[in-house]
Write a structure and sequence with these properties.
Elements (H helix, E strand, L loop, with lengths): L1 H11 L4 H17 L3 H19 L4 H10 L1
Helix pairs in contact: 1-2, 2-3, 3-4
Length: 70
């Protein structure tokens, strides 16, 4: 369901890297809880890259993204 939410968000809602990254991090955490670690890591990496582009590498939210990857 959260994968579908991300798809709809990307298609319908005006683009916001921050909002999309937050959804991707939530998806990554959910996938990890389901044991789909490779998929979760892929989503977390995509979210982290977008966040770094949007906020810069020293922003506090970047630390949260790294924590999800851990």
């Amino acid at each position: 369901a959260i994968e579908r939410a991300l798809e709809l968000q990307q298609r319908v809602v005006p683009r916001s890297l921050l909002r999309e990254s937050t959804t991707r991090m939530n998806l990554a955490a959910t996938l990890a809880q389901l044991g789909r670690y490779d998929d979760g890591e892929r989503e977390a990496q995509a979210a982290l890259a977008a966040l770094q582009d949007e906020l810069g590498p020293a922003h506090p939210q970047i630390a949260s993204a790294y924590a999800t990857l851990a």
